[in-house]
Design goal:
Layout (H helix, E strand, L loop, with lengths): L2 H17 L5 H8 L3 H12 L18 H13 L5 H4 L9 H10 L15 H13 L12 E3 L2 E2 L2 E2 L3 E3 L5 H20 L4 E2 L5 H4 L1 H10 L2 E2 L12 H15 L4 H13 L3 H14 L1
Parallel strand pairs: 5-6
Antiparallel strand pairs: 1-4, 2-3
Length: about 280
């Protein structure tokens, strides 16, 4: 509330009490908590039959010029989120932020805090409740996850192995035996090449010895360079498609992965390998 408005209310309050027969300044002070000096000044004005209305032009002149007042109004009308500090440099004469704040209030612009809760319709509320019931038993600390092993070539994909146990050398050798060796030998004879990164599982002693016996050729891979492997692009595609399907259980997750894996045909794989060759 503006200072002169507050003062006018006090004058009106004192005048009302005076007209009601309460004419002593002490009594008015006790009833209203208005400062004694103000009460006696207004009582003298009443007795002298002077106007109690605020005189136009009374008080300290505003430091903000008329054109700046119009500019302030225009800025707030164009962008209600405008801050006081952003307006200060745009004024023609320097003023304090408190002076600017008072002027903004005089122009009936008010500051409001953002609503702390979202505005929800009945439909939004019902959907939120349904979601909470559905996810009530979901373990956020241990989300469902699986490990994958698969391979690609210009002729297609290998068998995909989906497992939940830790991927160690025993699991790795078993995976190569079941998902790669027989199929690769059938397609390529004894001239196929295995490319994989330098994961400790791939380069461990047991794995190396086993691959020396069963894998015809291997490509040495630069250190810390898993991103060079073409299959990394395929894993990224699989993850993007999986997000769209949004499986809710481990069994749904496994089935979705198998379904996506089955869509990777030779044409897609050749384009993927060609893109990787251009990138590298």
């Amino acid at each position: 509330m503006y200072k002169h408005s507050t003062q006018q209310q006090r004058r009106n309050q004192i005048e009302t009490l005076y007209n009601a027969g309460i004419t002593k300044g002490v009594d008015i002070c006790q009833r209203t908590s208005i400062p004694k000096q103000t009460v006696y000044r207004v009582l003298n004005q009443i007795k002298d039959k002077k106007s109690l209305q605020h005189k136009r032009g009374a008080g300290r002149p505003s430091k903000i010029k008329a054109n700046d007042k119009r500019r302030i109004a225009a800025l707030y009308q164009s962008n209600p989120r405008t801050s006081l500090r952003s307006i200060l440099p745009r004024l023609s004469s320097p003023v304090s932020i408190s002076t600017l704040h008072a002027q903004v209030k005089r122009q009936n612009f008010v500051s409001k805090r953002a609503v702390r809760v979202p505005v929800l319709t009945d439909l939004h509320i019902s959907k939120r409740i349904a979601w909470c019931k559905e996810m009530k038993c979901f373990d956020w600390r241990h989300p469902s996850k699986v490990h994958l092993w698969g391979g690609i070539s210009i002729m297609g994909t290998t068998h995909l192995r989906i497992f939940t146990e830790n991927f160690n050398q025993v699991v790795y050798i078993s995976t190569l035996r079941e998902c790669l060796i027989e199929e690769a030998n059938a397609k390529y004879g004894d001239s196929w090449v295995l490319q994989e990164d330098n994961s400790p599982v791939h380069t461990g002693r047991a794995a190396k010895e086993w691959k020396t016996e069963f894998v015809p050729l291997r490509i040495d891979w630069p250190p810390n360079s898993p991103d060079l492997a073409p299959i990394e692009n395929l894993w990224a595609v699989l993850k993007r498609r999986l997000i769209v399907l949004h499986p809710k259980t481990v069994s749904q997750l496994k089935q979705a992965i198998q379904d996506i894996w089955a869509t990777f045909d030779p044409d897609f794989l050749r384009s993927l390998l060609h893109f990787n060759a251009q990138k590298n």
